[in-house]
Amino acid sequence: MDFWQLAISGLANGSVYGLIALGFVLIYKATEAVNFAQGDFMMMGAFITIWLTNEQYLGFSFWLAIPLAILIMALLGYLLDVVVIRRMFGQPQIAVIILTIALGFIIRFAAGAIWSHEPQLLETPFAGREVHFGGLVLGFEEVAVIIVTLLLTMFLFLFFKKAKLGKAMQAASQNQLAAYYVGIPVKRIQSLVWALGGSVAAVAGILFASKGAVDPSTGLLGIKAFAAAVIGGFGSLPGALIGGLIIGLIEPFAAYGLPAGYSQVAPYALMLLVLIFRPAGLFSQMHEKKV
User: Fold this and answer.
1) How far apart are CA 4 and CA 6, in angstroms?
2) pTM confidence score
3) Which of 89, 127, 179, 273 has a CB 3.0–4.6 Å from the CB of 184, allowing a cystine?
């Protein structure tokens, strides 16, 4: 029974890693930029939801706060591209990487200045509820995290595969000049991708905050999510989720069966092995650019 309890807990944590990794992959698929501030976006989404919901702040209804937080983070992602990222056009990719790393530091500092560095909890209507399945006792939050993550991943996969806007985003990533010549508004498309990345980060933040305390350093979870994206394959949305789930499962079992401290190293050891033996990731869908 301990096995299944650890597995469910690992899947719930891995779902959050997977959602952050989805943000990495979304932005990379459409813009070929790596947003190392994606974990900090998640943390900011969590704090915005806490600010909207908790009685000590605005005290909005939880169900009203969720779409508001997602909308605010989408707007922040859109503005980030319009005001900052777009000005980096033509610069080497390393410049964008350094910019997003610096942005992560700024976001963590801003969150600490606004909401303090003390851990805070999100007030949810299902706090303390449990789901009984066989002999397992599962937190309602853990079950919700897993279900919402699977549904969101399925939606995004179908969006990029079937929707006209999703195909336009992929076309812009493959060849920006060709996409522009066939009438795709490349700059606007890229801004919408950053908005979508902000929205996904907000969902991840809400789910994470519903099952545990949040502080500004929570944004550093983005490092594990990056490992998940690398393991799954930086071009694959399902791969990002599976990579997150793999890391989520590794951690509790490594903590259970290995000496103290090894559980934190295990995900990165796996990432190293994947980079050595399958550099494109386990489920890579990346292709060479068409010219």
Assistant:
1) 5
2) 0.89
3) 179
